[in-house]
């Protein structure tokens, strides 16, 4: 999905359901109490780069999504969950 104000990685999973990967990355990070600085360092990137990923200003490729998932110690598929709050409650609790 294209937004004039920012780039956002959204996926239509059928019907009306859209997943904003960048928002899910941020939700996972916050749920684990991990800083942006930590994730950026683990990915070998700058804090500014990682901040732009979470804000939807940069669309990470598959390799960088894998790096972020590894830094957060989650499966990359979690970033594509439509109902992430439910998933976080069960998988990360």
TrEMBL record:
HTH cro/C1-type domain mapped to chain residues: 25-79
CDD domains with a match to the protein in the record: HTH_XRE
What InterPro entries does the record tag this protein with? Answer: Cro/C1-type_HTH, Lambda_DNA-bd_dom_sf
Top-level lineage group = Bacteria
- GO terms for MF: DNA binding
Protein name according to UniProt: XRE family transcriptional regulator
Which species does this protein come from? Answer: Lysinibacillus halotolerans
């Amino acid at each position: 999905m294209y937004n004039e104000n920012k780039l956002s990685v959204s996926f239509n999973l059928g019907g009306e359901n859209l997943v904003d990967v960048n928002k899910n990355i941020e939700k996972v990070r916050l749920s684990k109490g991990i800083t942006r600085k930590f994730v950026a360092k683990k990915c070998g990137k700058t804090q500014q780069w990682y901040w732009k990923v979470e804000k939807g200003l940069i669309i990470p490729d598959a390799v960088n999504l894998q790096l972020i998932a590894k830094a957060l110690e989650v499966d990359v598929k979690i970033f594509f969950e439509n109902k992430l709050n439910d998933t976080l409650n069960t998988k990360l609790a």
